[in-house]
What does this fold into?
Amino acid sequence: MSKKTSYGAKDITVLEGLEAVRRRPGMYIGTTGIDGLHHLIWEVFDNSRDEAMGGFADDIEVALLPGNRVRVVDNGRGIPVDKHPKTKVSALETIMTTLHAGGKFGGEGYKYSGGLHGVGVSVVNALSVYARAEVHRDGGRYVQEYKNGGKKTGPVKKLGSSKITGTIITFEPDPEIFPEIKFNWNTIVSHLRQQAYLVPSMKITIYDLREIDEKLIKDTEVFYIRELRLNAPRISFYFEGGLKSLISFQNRHQRPLHKNIFYTKGESEDVQVEIALQYVDDISARINAFANNIYNPEGGTHVTGFKTALTRTINAYVKKNNMKVEGSFSGDDVLEGLTAVISVKMREIQFEGQTKAKLGSVEARSATETVFAKAFAEFLEEHPDDAKAIIQKASLAMKARKAAKAAKDSILRKGALDGMTLPGKLADCQVKNAEEAELFIVEGDSAGGSSKQGRDRRTQAILPLRGKILNVERARLDKMLANNEIKALVVALGAAIGDTFDLSKLRYHKIIIATDADVDGAHIRTLLLTLFYRYFKPVIEGGYLYIAQPPLYKIKKGKEVYYAYSDEERDEILKGKEGFDVQRYKGLGEMNPEELWETTMDPKTRLLKQVTIQDAQEADKTFDILMGTDVSARKTFIQTHAKEANLDI
It folds into this structure.
């Protein structure tokens, strides 16, 4: 029976000013988690960066202040402060409090800009409990402050004269919007270092003043923090080499296959295209794409144009020079071992979503294709030794691809002919619904036996692994699939591997790595994470990969039994410390089936750590260092992080 309700004009909600941003922050910054929190800094920094791109600024400073405040300074032209003809308030107030207001929609304010929507600094203001804009221009120093989501505390005030030009934006994120306000120094440094490579004439200095006495910087009237000469962590970036310097930095742990780094900069269809690349002795490809200096982690039309031109140009060079190659290279063949940076700049730019993860501008594809194809063809002709090394790399990749296809076809065909016969070592679950099914990948036969006996047979499958699996960081797919442990895992998952992986066919929606809490267990876990990161990445991205957290201690006192998952938890239980019997678990195999079920497998009581890829680039770099061939880099990494390790020896 339907219920009558009134629905008229009075039921339509109108969100005025910046209230829409506070109601739906995810629409503007993607998330209110840690990524969205850092996005606030990027939005403010992007305005300063755009001034530098236009040649109006060359010195930017970002400072993390006490009390969760952030201060961004540039020596650009300064935001206009005269009255806006339409809003009837100052241009500064208009920009700080009005969505889709900025100097990037037309005219000659900016030739190229990342902030196409004009929502950047106003969104930051809307999501802050406090914000302050200070402008130096036209011989004066002007200030306006805002609180509680962009509400101005008064009109723009002129505080005095100034001989410089520039803008200072200070903001404090609103804890009602962001559940956790904790800025990550390494995330900020990594992002801003990248930007310094993209604008060679730009100096960026980053300060961490969070532990500084607030009195030293409160109410200060300095333009740059450096004028205070504070003793605090800081780092500066200034690169003259641009994209070529960025390629060198990204390949610092790799062995280049050719001496000369390719670089070109050109224009087509009113799109400026800049590309640098170099091949290294690796089986992965690393392509970083930018549009108007905004990083596009999901690529876009410029990446599509680049890949098309790369494949076509290399195949054309092979044919022209009558080189002996078995057939034509595929796109994957020419990508193996490639490190490339693609940067396009254009007046009218179209991203897919406000977070600008993917470029959608159609003209960027053909422009990138045109500029790159011509320049890369010339590079190959002018550097025959480099060209030979690139062709040899692609030839090796092609042979490996064909061998891998044969190996995959063999595994999958065998499975199909045998009625999808699963590995003998796999103790499968009864349920066929992947959403209910769990796969425990356990270390060794002992743990495998206990977990098989202790599991819920309806929903939990067990796959024991013998010893350490192959280090896949340096191994191609054909060699991997010859490894019995990896082959068993591929068949058990049921969704193929690599470029043919089909997430919809995954047999389990919880894949749980359960290894011992010792050095060997940590090594096996790292090898498995490398395998999933390289060849089953959609499993991680889909949120299906977990790490089991078995207890470290079993503590008994009479008939009472406690489990402790850390030394701190053990100490808390042992307060008083009389009459307790403490057992230290070093492996899952030491637990009987009941203990394993109660502590590690029972969904009601277990602890699982979900594996996520917060920053694919950083994860990629770490895997390269830990699992690659650069011994000195690995030694440095281990020495740097040794104090963070918790080892059982």
Q: What stands out?
A: DSSP finds 20 helices and 22 strands in the chain. The domain at 422-550+594-618 is CATH 3.40.50.670 (Rossmann fold). The radius of gyration is 29 Å.
